[in-house]
Amino acid sequence: MRVVIMKIMMRCMMTREIKFRAWHKEDQKMLVVVGVSFGINLESDNTEILSVSCAEVTGGRWKFAGDHEADEVILMQSAGLKDKNGKEIYEGDVLFHAIQGRRVVYYPFRNSVASFGLKCVAHGFKSTLYDADRLYEVIGNIHENPELLENKQ
């Protein structure tokens, strides 16, 4: 049995806006998250995501895409950074650097620190998401562009 304890809208007053996007597993498309409903599982006493409210953006216009159960989507948080072209960087994005190659953004970088990391596609080397705004370019993401995860030398 679950009891809903709060609904958080993503555009609340904060010092840093928290943004999410969601990959809809069945429809195979990326959605913008506009709200998340949380609840407490009374059996385990854990807070859980109950549903995710999403929208589609097409041609600059927003269209409500419905409320989705938590297991229907994969949530990806914005790193709060932009690439060298000004594009927002999210968890699951594949970044490119001319010398370092392709790297996947993941979270958490370390369990003791709330930070994002990069994992090299070619050899698995992990590093921090440092200088992303100067060095890296978003070239896709792991859901829409799985071919970017292939290790091509």
Structural write-up:
- Strands 1, 2, 3, 4, 5, 6 and 7 form a 7-stranded antiparallel sheet that branches. Strands 11-10-9-8-12 form a 5-stranded antiparallel sheet.
- The termini are far apart.
- The longest helix has 4 residues.
- 3% of the residues lie in helices and 55% in strands.
In short:
By secondary structure, this protein is mainly beta.
Helices and strands in order:
Layout: E1 2-9, E2 20-24, E3 29-41, E4 46-58, E5 61-69, E6 73-82, E7 88-90, E8 93-97, E9 101-106, E10 117-120, E11 126-128, H1 132-135, E12 137-141
Q: Helices and strands: which structural class?
A: mainly beta
Topology pattern, helix = H, strand = E: EEEEEEEEEEEHE
| Mean pLDDT level | 85
Strand content: over 45%
Biggest beta sheet attributes: 7 strands, antiparallel
First-last Cα distance: 51 Å
**Coarse morphology:** globular
Q: Would you identify the regions where 5 or more consecutive residues have pLDDT less than 50?
A: 1-13
Overall number of strands: 12
Q: How many DSSP H or I helices? A: 1
Helix content: under 10%
How big is the Rg? Answer: 17 Å
Record keyword descriptors for this entry.
single chain; 153 residues; mainly beta; seven-stranded antiparallel sheet; 3% helix; 55% strand
